[in-house]
Amino acid sequence: MTDVRDGVVAGAPRAAGLPLLGSVLDFRRDILQAMHRGRTAHGDLVQYRLGPVAVHGVSSPELAAEVLTDSDRFGKLGPDNPLRLVLGEGLLTSDDHKSWLRNRRMMQPIYTKQALAGMFATMGVSAAEQIAHMGDRYRTGAVVDLHTEMMRVTLDIVSRCMFSTDVSRTLAGLGPDAVDVAINYAFDRLQNPLSPPTSWPTPRNRRFHEVMRGLDDLIYRIIAERRRPDAPTGGGDLLDMLLAARDADTGQGMTDRELRDEVITTFAAGHETTAITLTWAFYLLSRHREVLERVQREVDGVLGDDLPTPEDLAAMPYTLRVFEEALRLYPSAPILPRLVRRDTELGGYRVPAGSRVLVNLYDIHRHPRHWPDPERFDPDRFLPETGKARHRFAYLPFGAGPHLCIGKHFALMEAHLLLCALVRRWEFRHVPSHRVVNHATITLRPRYGMLMTMHQRTPSAARTAHVAGERTS
Ligand code: HEM
Question: Structural domains in the chain?
Answer without folding.
Answer: 4-472 (1.10.630.10)
